[in-house]
């Protein structure tokens, strides 16, 4: 009914945005609910007839997006949004155009005038989802950065002593049956320790360390160049194994090639 004329954001890995409707008109609620039901990345948590009902929902549930009328009983939509300290994204759905400037001053995602066509509603929802996805990406990157800062070295046993190795100094790691060689920047000889390459891979942060061969783990920050199926790190040619090509392609080549 709706989707034949609209372009919809579809991502197999999307997380739905939890949303609520705040509108004291039953017909308006019904229309918005129907629209939301046709958009896979939206999940309606509650329909509210007043700001007071919405306050209760926000105290109990994390809401990502609010569809909000301006003319509400007792507390207007503008007053309601202005009163929130931790404000979710919101889209005004109203019959009155004169509040548009004030709405965007409050950082509204969009301002929809009733009667609202589905195509226009979908455009606003897509805009909210793009913001939502970008914010999630930023949070994930911040989490990775925090994890990296928390783990900036490893301790390994070598020659009957424990050796501290800074992660950002590791060039690559080579597996030799029951031992591994850890090649370190500005060091002539590698650190040799009784360990397995699999165990090393499991315990290194995966944002910079990648297994590219049954015998090699590399620090992707140290890559000098890539030629066909070989990587050059510090003048060492490291092969990319057939079983690791796809991971290397997606994690390094596709991600960082401009």
Task: Using brief descriptors, characterize the structure shown.
single chain; 258 residues; alpha/beta; Rossmann fold; OB fold (Dihydrolipoamide Acetyltransferase, E2P); 5-stranded parallel sheet; 5-stranded antiparallel sheet
Q: From the helix content, strand content and strand pairing, which structural class follows? A: alpha/beta
Shape: elongated
Instruction: Average the pLDDT over all residues and give the rounded result.
Output: 88
Largest sheet: 5 strands, parallel
Number of helices: 7
Give me the CATH architecture of the largest domain, please.
3-Layer(aba) Sandwich
Count of discrete structural domains: 2
CATH superfamily of the largest domain: Response regulator
CATH-defined fold name of the largest domain: Rossmann fold
Q: What proportion strand?
A: 25-35%
- Rg computed from alpha carbons, rounded to a whole number of angstroms: 27 Å
What percentage of residues falls in helices of 4 or more residues? 25-40%
Notes on the protein architecture:
With 258 residues, this protein is an alpha/beta fold. It has 2 domains: 3-147, Rossmann fold, CATH 3.40.50; 152-256, OB fold (Dihydrolipoamide Acetyltransferase, E2P) (Beta Barrel). The protein has 7 helices and 15 strands. A 5-stranded parallel beta sheet has the order 2-1-3-4-5. It is elongated. Mean pLDDT is 88; it is low at 3-7 and 9-13.
Describe how the helices and strands are arranged:
Blueprint: E1 17-22, H1 26-37, E2 42-48, H2 51-60, E3 65-68, H3 77-83, E4 89-94, H4 100-105, E5 110-113, H5 118-150, E6 153-158, E7 161-166, E8 170-176, E9 179-184, E10 191-194, H6 197-203, E11 209-213, E12 216-219, E13 225-227, E14 230-233, E15 236-239, H7 245-256
């Amino acid at each position: 009914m709706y989707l034949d004329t609209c372009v919809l954001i579809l991502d197999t890995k999307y997380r739905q945005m939890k949303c609520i409707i705040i509108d004291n008109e039953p017909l308006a609620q019904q229309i918005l609910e129907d629209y939301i039901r046709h958009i896979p990345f939206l999940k309606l948590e509650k329909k509210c007839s007043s700001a007071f009902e919405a306050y209760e929902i926000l105290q109990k549930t994390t809401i990502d997006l609010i569809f909000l009328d301006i003319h509400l009983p007792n507390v207007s939509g503008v007053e309601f949004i202005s009163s929130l300290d931790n404000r979710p994204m919101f889209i005004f759905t109203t019959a009155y155009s004169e509040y548009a400037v004030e709405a965007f001053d409050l950082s509204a995602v969009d301002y929809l005038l009733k009667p609202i066509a589905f195509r226009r509603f979908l455009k606003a929802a897509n805009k909210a989802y793009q913001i939502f996805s970008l914010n999630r990406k930023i949070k994930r990157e911040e989490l990775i950065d925090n994890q990296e800062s928390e783990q900036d070295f490893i301790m390994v046993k070598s020659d009957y002593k424990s050796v501290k190795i800074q992660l950002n100094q590791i060039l690559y790691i080579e597996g030799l049956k029951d031992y591994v060689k850890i090649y370190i920047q500005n060091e002539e000889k590698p650190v040799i320790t009784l360990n397995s390459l699999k165990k090393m891979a499991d315990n290194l942060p995966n944002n910079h360390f990648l297994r590219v061969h049954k015998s090699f783990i590399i620090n992707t920050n140290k890559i000098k160049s890539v030629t066909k199926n070989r990587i050059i790190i510090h003048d060492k040619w490291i092969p990319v194994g057939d079983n690791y090509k796809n991971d290397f392609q997606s994690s390094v080549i596709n991600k960082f090639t401009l």
